[in-house]
Amino acid sequence: MKNWLLLFLLLNSFQIFAQLGFCKGSKGDPIFHETFGAGTSTGSPLSPGTTNYVFVSQDPQDGEYTISDEISLTIQGWHPFLPETVISNGRALIVNAGFSAGKFHQTTITGLCENTTYEFSAYLMNIYNRASMDCENGGIPINVKFEIWDETDTILLKQGNTGPINSTNSAEWEQYALTFQTQVGQESVILKMFNNGEGGCGNDLAIDDIIFRSCGDLTEIIAKDNPANPYRVCEENTPVSVVLKATPDFSVYTGHEYQWQVSDDNETWSDIAGETGENFSTPLLTSSTYYRVKVAEDAVNLNNNLCSSASEAFFIKIILTPEAPRSLGNISICSNEDPQTLRVEAKPDETVNWYDALEGGNLLAEGSLSFLPPEAGTFYAEAVKNEFSCTPGPRTPVSLEIFEVPNIVDEVLQLCPDAVLQLDAGVDVMQYLWNTGEITSTINTSIPGNFSVTITTQNGCSEVKNFEVNAVEEALIAGINSEENRVIINTINPGTFEYSLDGVNFQGSNIFEMVPGGIYTSYVRDLQQCFTATLEFPHIVVPRFITPNNDGYNDYFQLNGVSYFEASETRIFNRYGKLILAAKGETFKWDGTLNGRPLPADDYWYWIFIEGFEPIKGNFSLVR
Questions:
Q1: Residue pLDDT, tens place only, 349-390
Q2: How many distinct structural domains can be found in the chain?
Q3: Domain region containing 396
Q4: Is the domain of 440 the same as that of 504?
Q5: How far apart are CA 166 and CA 141, in angstroms?
Q6: Residue 155, SS3?
């Protein structure tokens, strides 16, 4: 028996609470909206007959109410403030429930439409602060019942209970709602609110944003050939007519009446005469247009926006062919400058592709208002729409011109003492500006230093040529290395010099190859030929080895070049310093023997004495 009683109570509770619920379809604009006013002070009392609670201008006690944006002025167990709702901010109705359950608020709603479904909603909050622990077990929950009566207060149209709303540790609004339907000829209802609980510690509530609005089906418009919204059409495919269909979801209405509307801006809507069916064919369109459909259960309500619902707008968007992008200017640069980017402007819903021809051609870059060309030339910018692939607009030519600058080579020059050196820019028909202030193509200088000239072309391109003028350093010969057929002239001081062995033919290298033996004069001069140093030296071609085996090759140690000297002497020593042979004149020749006996393979040393020169010393190898 107890189990059956429990089941009955649960089912009865479900039937009561289940009557609360939000409109599942399309909601109209509010017909009634009670915000209890704005401001930071206490509001005025409710109209007579609205409540049997007592109005106070402070925190209310049991059986009292106030209208304010502040709470917890004297009752410390309440939340310290009222948070903002998602709809309005300001005052709210603050109720401290009486000790007995009963009605605490009643108001009449007028201006309704007959035979129409409405949603009633309100924000509620348990204002007891659970964290204060002033009441046991979080205090008595609030529990509110809503009743909707006809204007005669004799027919209950709908009711619902919130059920227990427990206290929380932070102030939180919660919205509750129920839907109801007016009867034929009915234009007003009475809203009643009841406290289901009893007074005591807790059961204190705030209520705000009481709203009544029509409730209708969610109606979607689709095009029969393409369900996309917006419905996009390229300008080249206009004029176009589109067949539209209204598709309500039957969440509220059981029957449907329609009125199609049109708008240019999605704000101001006009009825389309005679278009009251489920389907609608637009006229031939050449410009973007919005359509929607008003839906009501009763045709008489289609003329009142507060008594009908409207679909979301269906947008037929005509995508205009883009205009040619606007060039931000052709660019001219000098060949010695960094590359420059070409730029254009287009509309926000467009992007730009770049080509190498006015029509057709190769795609060089896409999706950019700028382009960095790899070389000089004319390039073409074409605008395309971002959202849809339509015919692109005309192309805009943008050019990059590159002016060549002179080919400049810096110079390093030598200045002779007491001489005047001419510095030449080396380029004709230009503008010149030297770092000395002169503006001619050439200048003269008698002092060393760094000079520069800025050379500017007729196109305004400039390049700088630098001159390093150094005082000539006189060459000083340190000595001559004479080895086999090679002669190396060494200088004491470093510098840029020219070298010669005959005073006529000069070269940049100080090394001479394949030089026959003899007496020579070495010449070293600076590039400006200010100074020339000379040194006479003997060049004796000494073999590096001998192979005395009578094969006709390298059988003897003999010298090439001693014939140029009137007096010479050559001496041969072994590694221990023992004199092997000494002889004078150009006829000196040694066959690798001592007293007719062959000497062993080894290294041997020679001294060559020539009158007037330092001795020439070295070694050679005897190979067996």
A1: 999 999 999 999 999 999 999 999 999 999 999 999 987 889
A2: 6
A3: 326-403
A4: no
A5: 5
A6: coil
